[in-house]
Design a protein that fits this description.
Length: 458
């Protein structure tokens, strides 16, 4: 896996895995995991499951009444890239079918290996480290399944899910099968967008999300090269479910922003996003990465529309000490916590420019330790690092006014009192929702991503 320039924070749910990874994917994981629904609100930005109620035909629908924007005069027609999406690895077999006639070929030589009628099922297995299709040996190391008539609106299915494009099966070194969907980039974005933002959200927010998701994909091309594909279909990259994940509104915004990506100095940017900023976004350096000119801390008043934006997580000093100990940070009995009081947009020795926690000090009977904000978030399981602490008897906790809390009563409560959900770097989805009432998607993008150009990848 290619190393990216970031060393970043982890998603709460995937924390143990991502903590050591130190690559850009952690942003994506954070975005997707922290943004999971916390209530049954219809407007939650991230959908829990894949929509199955999605007519695919809308894909071909042109954006109604759209005229070319003036900037398009400089657009150079380029071919739409194909992205290779890893759907599954380490499979003993793969079962494919199609609603039209289909063929399979040696992907190296293009030699046709077989043909099947509409509805016929092909089962691919591995025998003696060679592929077999329906029990018949084939010598190819890579097999590509494709619709026989490429102009027809027919789709291949693998493991019961329909996909646009072709399906490539790779024979891995360990004799198992890797399943890859080769799909045009915007067809891929069509299968991603409604996983990342609910299609009933405002159109301009959805368009901003489409450009961010496309930019993220362009940046990620080749990320999983070692495994034989570009991106995976999980929160590690972006969640993708093929045609089953599409929605008519999602496809409309993908089409309306066709090919658009954000670049900085001519290259696709790291278009991170997450659920809610809590009032101010984070600079990329706040997650332990390099300070990037396009990922700066900016005030985000429109994020105020986010539900559950203010949160509290309470526990006894004993519980907190035990969480620290299980993460390898044993302090004995917790005696005090030091943290400069939170002021939005104000840095301190232990706070970043947005006000997010840089370091928090825990003083116990055996030692005192400083823990980074992202690590605290992971250890305790907090929605964000834009937080302060409170302490006192249950239901009567007092705010942190002195920058230090002395813990005299082990039965009292420590409250992590914070704002926003997610890492805070890049676009707040709820902020985009709020901005969409008055702003166009390009204004939303230039609010969250500074100094970038919106250009056409194709
Ligand atoms: Zn991935």
């Amino acid at each position: 896996m290619r190393r990216h320039s970031f060393f970043v924070l982890v998603g709460i749910l995937c924390a143990a895995f991502y903590w050591t990874m130190g690559n850009a994917a952690a942003f994506a994981a954070d975005r997707a995991t922290v943004g999971l629904p916390t209530s049954t609100a219809k407007t939650n930005p991230v959908r829990a499951g894949q929509s199955k109620t999605t007519p695919a035909d809308a894909a071909k629908e042109p954006a109604a009444g759209k005229k070319a924007a003036p900037e398009k005069r400089g657009r150079v027609a380029k071919e739409e890239p194909i992205i290779r999406v890893g759907l599954a690895e380490s499979q003993a077999s793969a079962v494919l079918t199609c609603d039209g006639a289909y063929v399979f070929r040696d992907a190296m030589t293009s030699e046709e290996l077989g043909k099947r009628a509409a509805g016929a099922v092909s089962t691919v297995t591995v025998k003696n480290r060679r592929f077999a299709v329906d029990g018949k040996d084939v010598s190819a190391k890579k097999i590509r399944f494709a619709i026989a008539d490429e102009r027809s609106s027919r789709f291949l299915s693998v493991a019961g899910e329909k996909y646009r494009g072709t399906i490539l099966l790779l024979l891995a070194d360990d004799g198992t099968i890797t399943v890859v969907n080769e799909v045009k980039l915007d067809d891929y974005i069509g299968g991603v967008i409604s996983e990342e933002m609910s299609p009933d959200w405002p159109t301009e927010a959805l368009k901003a999300q489409a450009v961010a998701a496309r930019t993220f994909a362009a940046y990620s091309l080749g990320k999983h090269d070692d495994d034989g594909y570009d991106v995976c279909a999980t929160t590690c990259c972006q969640v993708y479910g093929g045609i089953g994940s599409e929605s008519p509104e999602g496809l409309r915004v993908v089409s309306a922003t066709r090919g658009e990506i954000m670049t900085y100095q001519g290259k696709p940017i790291y278009a991170a996003f997450y659920a809610s900023s809590g009032g101010m976004t984070a600079g990329s350096e706040e997650m332990g990465g390099t300070a990037l000119p396009y990922l700066q801390a900016v005030r985000d008043p429109q994020d105020a529309v986010a539900p559950n934006r203010h949160w509290q997580v309470s526990m006894s000093p004993r519980e907190l000490a035990s969480k620290l100990a299980s993460a390898g940070v044993s302090v004995g009995t917790l005696k005090a916590i030091e943290l400069t009081p939170l002021e939005l947009g104000k840095s301190a020795a232990d706070r970043y420019p947005s006000g997010r926690v840089k370091n928090i000090r825990f003083i116990g009977t055996t030692q005192k330790v400083d823990i980074s904000g992202p690590k605290l978030r992971w250890i305790v399981g907090l929605p964000s690092t834009l937080l302060d602490i409170r302490y006192g008897p249950e239901n009567k906790t007092a705010p942190n006014t002195k920058g230090k809390i002395e813990i005299s009563n082990q039965n009292a409560m420590i409250v992590f009192d914070g704002y926003g959900r997610g890492h805070g770097v890049g676009m707040s989805q709820w902020g985009a929702y709020g901005m969409a009432a008055k702003s166009k998607y390009r204004d939303i993008l230039s609010h969250y991503y500074r100094n970038v150009d919106v250009t056409w990848l194709f």
